[in-house]
Amino acid sequence: CGGIMTKDKFNELLYRIQRGDRSALEPIFNEYYSGMKTAAYFILHNESDAEDAASETMMKLIVYAERKKASERIDNHSGFMRTAVKTCALDILRKRKDNLSVDDLEVCATTDVSAQSIYRYDLIRALNDLDDKERELAIRHFMFGEKVKELNKYFDYRYDSLSRKLKKIRRKINSKLKRK
Fold first, then answer.
1. N or C: which terminal CB in the chain sees fewer CB atoms within 10 Å?
2. How far apart are CA 76 and CA 79, in angstroms?
């Protein structure tokens, strides 16, 4: 995913999307769609599902842009988009199957994302066991790297309370992953 778009250009486009300019999505689409579809295909092994994951990621980007604060910036836009499409692909995989089959494990073994896919699949299951607020905190902090100070503004917790809450969430997720 990604190539020539700068982080400043990406953040400017997000700002325009936030202000209702849907034409700002086109350069992001042109830059990332093909790579996102490929990344999703390595997880899903199905062209149609991979297209769905890439398209859903673009739709979620609009929602993200509308909800983010104008001052929030994404420093690693390529990583952000990669993580977002992989999350969508794994969500599709989770909906498609209750459990990974032996066939999935054998196919995954031939790709460079095998361990990551299985781990992320389990991680998504663990995230789904959290309540909505905990899930959003976990995703924004652990997956997108938002700092406690940034989250503190959005969630209206005291800094130390939010730090404790994140530690508790981390313990919950880790305990669910260890049971696998």
1. C
2. 5
Q: How far apart are CA 171 and CA 65, in angstroms?
A: 30
Please identify which residue in the block is written with the tokens 């992953």.
Answer: 177
pLDDT at residue 95 is higher than 80: no
Could you count the other beta carbons within 10 Å of the beta carbon of residue 111? Answer: 14
Torsion of CA 9, 10, 13, 19, to 10 degrees: -120
Which 8-state DSSP code applies to residue 22? G
Left (φ > 0), alpha (ψ -120 to 50) or beta: where does 43 sit?
alpha
Between CA 179 and CA 10 the distance in angstroms is 39
Residues 41-68 have pLDDT tens digits of 888 888 888 999 999 999 999 888 888 8
Give the pTM: 0.53
* Helices (runs of H) and strands (runs of E) counted in the chain: 9, 0
Question: What is the rounded CA–CA span in Å between residue 146 and residue 69?
Answer: 12
Q: What is the pLDDT of residues 6-20, one digit of tens each?
A: 999 999 999 999 998
CA distance 107 to 24: 37
Residue type, 93: L
